[in-house]
Amino acid sequence: MGIIRRWWTIAFGLLFSSFLQVNEHLGGSEGLQIEGLRLFGWDMSTGFEWGGGEVSFYFAYCVLAILVFLMASLLAHAIEWSAIGVNLDATRNDELVSSTFGISTQRLENYGLLAGETLSSAWRVHSIAA
After folding, report:
1. Are 20 and 26 in contact, with CB atoms under 8 Å apart?
2. What keywords is this UniProt entry annotated with (predicted)?
3. Positive or negative CA dihedral for 39, 44, 50, 52?
């Protein structure tokens, strides 16, 4: 059963990335052309002065990336200690014991498969676009 799920994951990722590459509304193989990011009226695609010198505009994007990473880490930690996270952890450790406690292992395995397919497809699209 596990090898079939792996093949489905790969197939889903290939189909999803192919869809994104040929979809003309999403820019096709060239990708979407987007403007610079503006947060709260501040154009992040321009540098700024700090301490008597000019700071590259990349610095603002690095700070934003760190903030997004911290928020994602907090979200992952919250999910890990939620009821869903504890059930997923119990299913990962021992399916038989989990099912005796009333945890639907099949539902959680399907949830994990869907989450894995989504993340792997997003990573594949990101790798192709970069």
Report:
1. yes
2. Membrane, Transmembrane, Transmembrane helix
3. negative
